[in-house]
Amino acid sequence: MAERTERCSGCGRQIFIAPPHAKTIHCQVCGRVTRVRSPAGPVRHAKNWFAGLISRYSKTVSVLYPPPPLPITTQYNSPSSTAISNLRPSTFPSVHGRRRALLIGIAYKGKRYELNGTVNDVKCMRYFLLKSGFRNEFIVVLTEEERDPWLVPTRKNILSAMRWLVSDCQSGDSLVFHFSGHGSQQFDVTGDEIDGFDETLCPLDYETNGVIIDDEINEIMVRPLTKNVKLHGIVDACHSGTALDLPYLCRMNTRTGYFQWEDHRPSSGAEKGTRGGGLAISISGCDDNQTSADTSALSGNTTTGAMTYAFIKAVESDPRLTYGGLLLAMRNAIREANTGFNVNNGGAISGFLKKMFQNGLTQEPQLCSSEMFDVYRSSFSL
């Protein structure tokens, strides 16, 4: 059995779990006792367990974009290996579309760590991109609801779709990668992470076929970008701050708006930027040491990822938005969700809900880039 670790809830240090099935760990540095999470669960939190209660007492927020009609939900049965070998990803659009997107939403249906907002995130993002000028035939969607086995978000299919997204990119292309699902971390074995951890995305079959680490994401989607090609990675998952493994992280003080770029280039000299002079920018749901949330608090009765909803709301609210303005608007939206809802009475239930809610959404969206720029002078555009 592989060694397992848990992050101390006091000082944040990673501690080996011994014995392997221990339910708690004791930090020898700060003395804090931390509950050990399920092996399958360093993942995005779902807030729906009290959504019904919240909806009765919180102010309703109108959804800014009507979601498209729900598709017919099908039960996906994994085809045999022989059947898969005879299939080709013919549903991937032929290149070349000047603006194309890959949208991935994984609910992990039937698992104890199932998510409720991820497929909604993809539907909303697709609708948003269509309104923004993207053509439907150049948007690839991977969810468990898809009938085509190549469009089910397994590890193999996600990697294939990533390669399609950046294949034959040419000057002037705009590419969008959106992932909504579980994210995690693992020990960095290559020495290219300043905090000692690789960030990972969890495909539908990650328990059997493994996660996708940020090194792979960078190699497949960032390095091939040629001059004047722009890639936006929008990642709504836990531990997603540097999910594209880009060399620069924008550290911003939300209260003052002051920012500075943090250099994440490894001392080994390993390259994390683009080979051909393109630009890669990631907008993520939280910092590497934080978790992202599913919640209905931002969009009324519809469960979405907090980050995805805040992103779309910010961009639709101000078409002249800069990258700095976008990051601040997203953080403010999530902060207001913690403190800005109204209740119908001032009794004990009100205080209980407010305390619970304020302890819930603690994520801070992050901005990373393959090159440094003035985030208040550069207009955001897809």
TrEMBL record:
- Taxonomic superkingdom: Eukaryota
Q: Describe the location of the Peptidase C14 caspase domain by residue ranges.
A: 98-372
Q: Name one GO biological process term.
A: proteolysis
Quote the InterPro entries the UniProt record gives. Answer: Caspase-like_dom_sf, Metacaspase, Pept_C14_caspase
Enumerate the Pfam families for this protein: Peptidase_C14 (PF00656)
The entry's cellular-component GO terms read: cytoplasm
Which GO terms label this protein's molecular function in UniProt?
cysteine-type endopeptidase activity
Family to which this protein belongs = Belongs to the peptidase C14B family.
Entry protein name = Metacaspase 9
Native species: Zostera marina (Eelgrass)
